[in-house]
From TrEMBL:
Record key words, sorted: Cell membrane, Membrane, Transmembrane, Transmembrane helix
UniProt subcellular location: Cell membrane
Region (Disordered): 352-374
Membrane topology, as annotated: Multi-pass membrane protein
Transmembrane segments: 20-37, 44-62, 118-144, 199-219, 249-273, 285-310, 322-346
Protein name, UniProt field: Urea ABC transporter permease subunit UrtC
CDD domains in the cross-refs: TM_PBP1_LivM_like
Length: 374
């Protein structure tokens, strides 16, 4: 009895290789990085890991689903502001005040009604996990059910990010253009303590590994195959009896869920959140990292987001006015000449090496003979 193989199975990493990859990543994040980096640099890396979490979701929605998400700053901002509101209320309670310090300066003597639920840590955590995903679910149903896609969806999502940033600027109760900052505690832990700062890094590193593992399972599942099929041949998927809108909504919602969690962790690590961190420019910056790393791969968005954020932090210190132009030029070069990103170049090189070895008559085949999948 012959065994039927699917060509896809031969290109997927096996469980041993996957486990080794996660073990290596965990070793780098939990052992090597804390040992060689100062507390300041470790905090910077934690900030970059927050961007990487957003990038994983974009890779799923854009790379696998073909949805050019230019508005992830909205979901990042929702998670960030909800966490910031809780931290400011907790700090006020530690001082014995009824409202946060910036509200006292602005003359606000009573906590606004929409702030009150975030006094509870449990409500805050649930809201961070559910609200960005719920907003994405409702928005996705409204957009994808009407078959809005391509450039129209990209413009709509970008306009949403701009509107959200403008709304926050006009709100005194959320700090206006200055945002929320000067957080002193994180669920009872003193943020001035270096040990607690390292704890935050370990938390965000663990979240990143969990997000990557969950995304990998989605990509390799039946749903992942349908998502790629919708990206490539949406009408054929509809003809087969599936609703492409539902498939897109799931990926869009998952990406928003990841972005909300990343925003929530960004706040205690960086110490500030403002409209400048969630508008059009940050949303495009998320996208640039994914494009450079390789949007169709699993680790490409992670490495691209970390690399671009590191380059921005490093180069902007020496060339503050030139970094924006360099970032735009890099994005144009990648999209125009290397659409698959850096990870795509590596895959192309492996394919060429494999093809050369196959064409060599002295090389004996080491793979099983394939039969059509039944």
């Amino acid at each position: 009895m012959s065994t039927t193989f699917h060509p896809r199975d031969l290109t997927r990493p096996g469980p041993v290789r996957t486990a080794a990859g996660f073990a290596l990543a965990a070793t780098i994040l939990f052992a090597l990085a804390p040992a060689v980096l100062s507390d300041f640099r470790l905090g910077l890396l934690g900030k970059f890991l927050c961007f990487a979490i957003v990038a994983v979701g974009i890779g799923l929605a854009w790379g696998r689903g073909g949805m050019l998400t230019l508005g992830q700053g909205v979901f990042f901002g929702l998670g960030a502001y909800m966490m910031a509101m809780h931290l400011k209320i907790a700090d006020a309670e530690l001082r014995g005040d009824t409202v946060p310090d910036f509200m006292q300066i602005a003359g606000i003597r009573e906590l606004p009604g929409y702030w009150a639920p975030f006094a509870s840590p449990i409500v805050t955590i649930l809201a961070i996990a559910l609200l960005p995903a719920l907003v994405a679910l409702l928005l996705g149903l409204g957009v994808f059910k009407r078959r809005v896609k391509g450039a129209y969806f990209a413009i709509l999502s970008q306009a949403l990010a701009a509107a959200f940033a403008i709304l926050l600027i006009g709100q005194q109760s959320t700090g206006g253009s200055n945002g929320l900052n000067r957080f002193r505690s994180f669920f009872g832990f003193d943020l001035a303590d270096p040990a607690n700062r390292r704890m935050l890094f370990f938390i965000v590193a663990a979240i990143l590994l969990l997000v990557v593992a969950a995304t990998r399972q989605l990509m390799q599942s039946r749903y992942g195959e349908l998502l790629v099929a919708v990206r490539d041949q949406e009408e054929r998927v509809r003809f087969l009896g599936y609703d492409p809108a539902n498939i897109k909504v799931v990926a869009y919602t998952v990406a928003a869920f990841f972005a909300g969690i990343a925003g929530a962790m960004f706040v205690p690590i960086v110490g500030i959140i403002s409209p400048a961190d969630i508008g059009i420019v940050p949303s495009i910056a998320f996208l640039i990292g994914v494009a450079i790393g390789g949007r169709t791969t699993l680790l490409g968005p992670v490495l691209g987001a970390i690399g671009v954020a590191w380059a921005q932090t490093t180069l902007s210190e020496s060339f503050p006015s030139a970094w924006t132009y360099a970032q735009a030029l890099l994005f144009i070069v990648v999209i125009g000449f290397f659409p698959a990103g850096i990870a795509g170049l590596a895959k192309l090189r492996r394919r060429r090496t494999k093809a050369d070895s196959t064409d060599d008559p002295t090389t004996s085949p080491s793979e099983p003979e394939l039969e059509p999948a039944r």
